[in-house]
Amino acid sequence: MMSRNINIKPSLKEDKTGLLVLIIIIGFAVAVIYHYVFGYYLGKPWPANTFLHTPEAHFWDFTLVVRQSAALDPFGSDIGGFAGAPFAQFLGYLFSIIPATWVQLSIFFGSFFITLTLVAKHYLYGIKSIRASHRLLAIFAITFLTYPVLFAVDRGNFDLLACVLLLLFAFTYGSQKYKASAVFLALAAAIKLYPSIFIVVYILDKKYKDALLVIFIAVFLTALSLSLFNGGFFLETQKYLHALLDTSGYLSAGNQQAFNSDLYGFLTVATQFFGHGLGRDIYLPAYPEARIIYTISAFILFIYFVFYLWKKQLLLWQVLAVLTILLILLP
Questions:
Q1: How far apart are CA 85 and CA 161, in angstroms?
Q2: pLDDT tens digits for range 75-108
Q3: Considering the entire predicted model, what is its pTM?
C-alpha cells in the first residue's frame, strides 16, 4: 500500500512553493522578452517571434474535432481523416450542438481553469480562503503561466479535458474513493490513451478490480462512441484505424517532431541537427529499425520503473510523478 501522508512543515512548503513560482515567472518572462525582441526588433517571423504554434492555428485542435464530429462522421477522409480517440470525437459532437463558438470555448476552457485553480489551491493552501497576495500570485502563476498550459490553451487541445479528469482521479484516489477515481481515470483514458499508464497505481496497491473497472469503462465508452457514429461500430472502427495510421505517420514526420515531448521526437530533431553539421541528411523516422529499437528500449525502461515503484514504498504523489514523467517522455 502506498503511503499518502505528507508531513511538510508549513514554512518549508511555503519556501518550496515560492521557489516554484519564481522559476515559472522567470521562465515566462525570459521567453516573452526573447521572442518579443526577435519578432518586434529583429523582424523575425514565426517561430522566432513566439513560443506557441503557428498564429493561424489558435484553438485549431478544438475546432477541428468539433467540425469533424458535427455530422457524426469524424473519420471521413473528406474532412481530413484526423484520428482523435472515438470518445473525444463524440465529446466534440456534443460541443457542436452548442450554437455559438464562444460558448463552446468558454465551457471548454472554463472547466479546465476552474478545476486547475481549485486543485492548486487545495494542495497548496487547503480549503480555507486565501487573502495573502503572494498566495494569489502563486495560484495565478501555476494556473496561467506554465508552458504546457499556454500551449494546450493556444491549440485548444482535448488534453485539457483529460487533465481535468486526471486531477480529479488523483484527488479521489488520494481520498481513498477508489471507484470514483476509476471512473475519472477511465474517462481520461477514453479521451486520450496515454493516461491509461496510471492503472499502474491500482496494480501497485493490489486493487485489481478497480484496474479492471478502468479498462472496462474506457473500452465501453470507445465502443459506444463508435456505435453512435453514422457507419456503425464495425465500419467506424475500420475508418478509425485507417485514420489513426495516417495521423501517426503525420505526427512522426517533418517539423511536427519539434512539438513532441517524447524522447523519440528529441532524437529525431537532434540527429537532424547534428547531421546538418556533418553535411548529412539524417532523418530518423526513415529508418524503421530505429523506431523498433526505440520502442523496445522504451518498453524495457517502463518495466524497470514499474518494478522500481513496486519495490519502493513511495508516497502517492511520488508514484504519480514518476508515471507522469514516463507518460511524457516515452510514447
A1: 13
A2: 877 665 567 899 999 999 999 999 899 999 999 9
A3: 0.87
